[in-house]
């Protein structure tokens, strides 16, 4: 279907991109946004269209720089105005082994009581290798910005360290333990952000913290307000002190805490949408004058639809949401490995096709 990548001569403009999302100016066609692009698509695209050699992330600096060069090139050649990158501190979790992968144990976590807490080996930020962030920042093409994050938010790491089941018990029986774990995680992430937010090409902080599921929040809204949202407010304040926006990726139905996120946390944009919860155009109609609405092409369409169906949905969203600004077109979640690469390219290409028609 595709004989070339969607855009061959990119002209990124990260300043205009951010201004559009913040409602300060309006681009003729909504810009591309994306949260994550799985390596399988990067590998396919660079091999088929860019004639570049794929190098997996490895332990040597030469392997790492080769991987990062390809990573930057994909975001650039797809026509994004930015590169988004994240890595996580190593938090110990209990996992369940499968045939070819493992899962976080949702029944018994690494910390179940105060003794576990005292014995837990917390990571140290000073031991973390920030080379990938520094390399990307130093090698961005002209006009591109850098969007950064720690991989995994406070609620995600809390529920994985304790296990979701034990967290639910602890929210009834051991509130002091929950609070102690949250404080440890959050202060480590604060220190982590202190190390990356001063990079000179950073244009936004965009973390992920999945706090919801299909019909509501994972724990009660009041518990999120008590333990989790105050730390997101502090992260947002860190970003705002540096005059950059704070975008939030969070899956699930967050309707019970959206006003908290906008008015108290002061997020500048929201990402992760699922049509079964609320189609992004309906969310945009409700909140699009107050915050940026990022992405929204449902993963079910991207994964199981035809390229033409993906084009149709992308075009509809650009025409319905993009005309009033504060909207970027992209997936409702990310581009995982099970999405056909041609569907991802169809979404990207449709945006550029519409941009060429306008301009």
Task: Report what the structure shows.
Helices cover 47% and strands 9% of the residues. The mean pLDDT is 95. Helix 6 packs across helix 7 (164-173). Strand 7, helix 11 and strand 8 (292-294) form a beta-alpha-beta unit. With 359 residues, the chain is of the alpha/beta class. It has two domains: 14-89 and 128-151 and 197-358, TIM Barrel (Alpha-Beta Barrel); 91-127 and 152-189, no CATH class. The protein is built from 14 helices and nine strands.
Key phrases:
single chain; 14 helices; TIM Barrel; 359 residues; globular; 4-stranded parallel sheet; 3-stranded parallel sheet; alpha/beta
Structural class: alpha/beta
Order of helices and strands: HHHEEEHHEHHHEHEHEHEHHEH
What is the CATH C-level name of the largest domain? Alpha Beta
- The total domain count is 2
Q: Which strands sit side by side, in order, in the main sheet?
A: 6-7-8-9
C-alpha end-to-end distance: 25 Å
What's the shape? Answer: globular
Give the total of beta strands.
9
Compile the SSE list and pairings.
Blueprint: H1 14-21, H2 39-48, H3 61-78, E1 82-87, E2 95-97, E3 102-104, H4 114-119, H5 131-138, E4 145-150, H6 154-162, H7 164-173, H8 175-196, E5 202-205, H9 221-241, E6 247-249, H10 258-265, E7 269-271, H11 280-287, E8 292-294, H12 299-304, H13 307-321, E9 327-328, H14 341-358
Parallel strand pairs: 1-4, 4-5, 6-7, 7-8, 8-9
Antiparallel strand pairs: 2-3
Helix pairs in contact: 2-3, 6-7, 6-8, 8-9, 9-10, 13-14
